[in-house]
Each structure stands twice: as C-alpha cells, then as structure tokens.
Amino acid sequence: MALSYARLGFYIVLFSFITLQSIDSKFAPTWDSLDKRPLPQWFDDSKVGILICWGVYSVPAWGGWGAEWFWWWWKGANQTKYIDYMSQTYPPGVTFQDLAASWRAQLYDPNEWADIFKAAGAKYVVLTSKHHEGFTLWPSKVSWNWNAMDVGPKRDLLGDLAVAIRNRTDIHFGLYHSLFEWFNPIYLKDKANKFTTQDFVKTKTGPELYELVNKYQPELIWSDGEWEAEDTYWNSTNFIAWLYNDSPVKNKVVVNDRWGSRTLCKHGDYYTCQDRYNPGKLQNHKWENAMTIDKLSWGYRRNAPLSDYLTMVELTTTIAETISCGGNILVNIGPTADGRIPPIFEERLRQMGQWLKVNGEAIYGSKPWAFQNDTATHGVWYTYQKATDSVYAIVTGGKMPFGKLMLGAPNPSPGTQVTLLGYTGGPFRFDRNPPGGIAIDVPAIPASQMPCDWAWTFKFTQLAN
What we know:
Shape: globular
Family: Belongs to the glycosyl hydrolase 29 family.
Order of helices and strands: HHHEHHHHEHEHHEHHEEHEHEEEEEEE
Number of domains: 2
Distance between the termini: 63 Å
Strand content: 15-25%
EC number: 3.2.1.51
GO molecular function: alpha-L-fucosidase activity
Pfam families: Alpha_L_fucos, Fucosidase_C
Structural class: alpha/beta
Function: Alpha-L-fucosidase is responsible for hydrolyzing the alpha-1,6-linked fucose joined to the reducing-end N-acetylglucosamine of the carbohydrate moieties of glycoproteins.
CATH architecture of the largest domain: Alpha-Beta Barrel
Oligomer: single chain
CATH superfamily of the largest domain: Glycosidases
C-alpha cells in the first residue's frame, strides 16, 4: 500500500529529528561544545579521592616545597641546596637517569594499596602516569627506555594498580598526566619555535594520552603541565572531543581544566583552578580541591618533619569546608621508591576512612545547602541530602561542643529532630534562638560512646528552611 503524503511527511520529519539528535549528541572539538557536556553523576557523588604522586623523584625523596620537582630544582633552577645534596649523597657525575635505574619498587604490592584506599573511604583514585620528568609508569610505546618496564622497576606499575583496584574495590580509577616535559629536546625545540611547531605533541604527549585511554580505560584524566602553551598547541579540544565521542570511556570519563595556558578555571568537566584550591564559598561550576597531606610537597620527602603533615583535625576541617561549598577533595600521598605507602600517610588515610564511616552520610552524594558555613558559630559547615531532605552541620576544630551549641543558620519547625551521626543517645533537645537559629543541648557523652574524633556531624530533619 502506498504511503499517504501526510504519513510520508511525518516519517521525513521523524527521520530528520533522529538524525539531528544523533548529530547533536556528538561534541565538536571546541570549548563551546565540550563545555555543554553534562558532568557524569559518579564524580559529583564521589566527593573523596586520592592522588598518588610517584615517580623517579621518589628516589632522592628530598627537598622543601615540591619534592616532585627535584630534577628541575637541581638541573633547571640550579638551586644550591639541591646541588649540595646530590654531591653529598651520590657519587660524582651521577645523573637523574641514573636515579631511575635505581628505582626498584621491590616492595610494591598494588593489592595492599587498593585495600588501604578502600579503607580510606575513597571513591576515586588518581595515579601519576607521567610527571614533568617524562618518565612513564607504564610501558609506553613512545617513551623508549624512559618507562617503568624498561628502566628501574621493570614492571607495569600503572597496569598492576588498575587491575588491583578494579578487582578488589568499587573505586573509580583515574590517571594524572603531564602534558609537558622539562628537558625533552623535542618539546624544547617546539618551545624555541614559540610553539608554531607541534612535533612533541604529535610524537610524544598526544600519543601517550590516546594510548593510556585505549589500554587502561581510566574514568578520569587529570591533566597538568599546561601553562607554557595554549590549548591549540596541545590539540586539547580534539583529544577531549574524541574522549567524549568515541573513546572506550566516553560515557563516564571526566576531565579537569588544565589543557592550555588559558583554560584553568574556565574549561573542563570540573575546575581545579590552582593547587590546594579551597575558596570557602559556593562556586557556580563543579570544582576539586587537590591538596596534600604533606603541606609542602606532593612527592615523598624523607626529610619532612612531623609538623609538615596535616593533623586529622586539619584534614577533616578541609574535607568539611570543601564538600560544603560543592567541591570534591583529592587527598595526595607520596609513596617511597621501594613501593611502600609511608606509615604517616597510611595512618591518615585509615583515620579518614574511620571518620567517613561515621560521617559519610553527610559527605557522599551530598549537595550544598542554602548556607555553607554557620552565621553564629565559627567552624561549622553545612551539607544537604535531597533524598531525605536532611541538613548536616559538621562541627570542626577538634573540640566536641558539650553544653549549648548555638547555630544561626538552621530554622527549626515543630517537627524538627536533631541527632548526632554515629551516636545512639539522641535525639537532642533544642530551643529556638530568639534572634533566629537554634540552641542545641549537647549532653556530656562518655568517651566510650563518642562516635568519632576530630569533627562531629549534627543531622537536622524537617527544618523550616
């Protein structure tokens, strides 16, 4: 039976609509198009990640600010203290390449690492696949004799950790990758040409990114080292368009904002803006606070005193501040050259996991509330769970507020209940503050019944606001 003109017209319109939808679902290699991609929900819900800075710099494992920049401080900036340290520690004439040969990772147990990250309550992990020194932690086809399979560990450090995390946990696996390399002669030639040539991008760093995604399928790409050249030199939008449209992780991958000298805090699925970014107020775009347990360094330092490490009061306060303002927190650790997570880092991670086990209801999957911090009491940060219409006040500072806790932000209703996460003795009595807010009667809780240390979370249901 012949189609009527009306029905034929309907199918033409329907086909055109489907075709347009298909075209629209493809992202063009422009920031205007790429920035319209919705953020995969898993990233916003995860809230807590761990960054692992591990490389050849873990062999000298020494310095002050930024020990992971050891090679640059020594040979690029020619800093006297690094020159003196090398002359006092190693034989004359030793090179940074010689240090790579002595990187053994003989105690590296990726299963143990995965178990620690799970115990820490992390929902995603980001491993340095390559730092600015150019050494790759996987057997890259474009990094001959400067990778962990050919030199030093003689092992696919990256691949082994990816397998362990995926076999033993439900943690999302991501990779850090530096676009540039300090002393790569091909990069330095492009730089001397004022980045009018792209030999380094086409033969080295670009192929590495495609290789990483196709071989290891990371769910997150944490790009870095972007600041010397614009994104057009790095071919960033072309790579990200492929990542979103055709890569094996196209439906779940997320990328940060470090893709060119003018992209920071402007483009990407989420913004990092700067290291240790913690604005203290709500942002209009998803962001991440990438920070370090060692206050000065991302890489492991043998010479770091205890005072250089965050206390758990400082760490839980940073978590509360970050999540309250809509960010994720990425907590960095630096393993040793022999493959261990140092006890100070392991302790902090396990303590973080203990705290999150009690207070995770206020963290994972939460959203910012109408208020981020309290208007009456310093050091109180709020989060919100839409599914239960519950508000959480995280009291930081390491001191439990026994007696009257005065909060200016919550407005109680006749049905409001106040409880303490992890404590079975609630709900607590409270009074409405005459100027506004709430005054909670916090009883003297015995030490044996204290739900956690360092910071405590009060839960409010049926608030008027």
